[in-house]
Amino acid sequence: MISLTPSHIIEYLYCPRFTYFEYVLGIPQYEEKHYKVIKGRELHDIKLERNKEYLRKKIGVQSKWLDQYLTNGYLRGRVDEVLLLNSGSMAPLDYKFAEYKDRIFDTYRQQLICYAILIEDNFNKKVNNGYLVYVRSKNKLVEVLISEKDKDLVRKSIGRIQEILEKNHFPKATKFKRRCLSCTYRNICIK
C-alpha cells in the first residue's frame, strides 16, 4: 500500500482526476511556481523559531510537540504542532501564510483532518478539533471542529485513491465544473 500525504487527499477531493493525471500518468503540476506554496514552505522554517506561547495558553495547552513527522502505514505528514489539551484530547495546529477571510478553505480543513487521524494513531488519544494560525492576519487563531464523519470521509478517500493508483482507474471528474477553470490539467482533461 502506498503511503499518502494530506496533499494527495486534498487533490483527490478537489477532483479525482487530479490524482490520475499526476500519479498514474506522471504529469507534474508545477506547483513550485505558485508564490503562496513557496512562501508557505519558507514560513514553516521561520515560525518554528518564534515564540507562540501566548497562542497555546489561549487554548489550554498542557504539552506540545513541534514539527512532528507522523505516519500510520497509509497516511503520512508533517504536523507543525501536536498539542495535548487540558481536556485530555489532542489537536493539530498548522500555520498558514494567508489572511483569514471569515471562512476556512476546504483544503486547510482536510489537512487538519488528516493530521487528526495521524495523531490518533500515533499518540492513541482522541482528536476533536484542530487549529489554524493565519500569519498574514496577525497570527489569528481559528478553531476547526473535526468529527468522526470527517475522518471517515478521509479514510474512504484513501481507499479510492489507492484504487486509482493500483488499477490505473480513470475516475469521473469533479461535479464542481468551476474548479476546472483553474485546474493545472484543464487542457488535457476529457470533459
From TrEMBL:
GO terms for molecular function: exonuclease activity; iron-sulfur cluster binding; metal ion binding. GO terms for biological process: defense response to virus. Its cofactor is iron-sulfur cluster; [4Fe-4S] cluster; Mg(2+); Mn(2+). It comes from the Bacteria. The keyword Nuclease applies. Mg(2+) or Mn(2+) required for ssDNA cleavage activity. Transmembrane segments: none annotated. InterPro entries: Cas4_exonuclease (IPR051827), CRISPR-assoc_prot_Cas4 (IPR013343), Dna2/Cas4_DUF83 (IPR022765), PDDEXK-like_dom_sf (IPR011604). It is an enzyme of class 3 (hydrolase). Keywords: Antiviral defense, Exonuclease, Hydrolase, Iron, Iron-sulfur, Manganese, Metal-binding, Nuclease. Signal peptide: none annotated. Residues 7-190 form the DUF83 domain. Its EC number is 3.1.12.1. Belongs to the CRISPR-associated exonuclease Cas4 family. CRISPR (clustered regularly interspaced short palindromic repeat) is an adaptive immune system that provides protection against mobile genetic elements (viruses, transposable elements and conjugative plasmids). CRISPR clusters contain sequences complementary to antecedent mobile elements and target invading nucleic acids. CRISPR clusters are transcribed and processed into CRISPR RNA (crRNA). This is CRISPR-associated exonuclease Cas4.
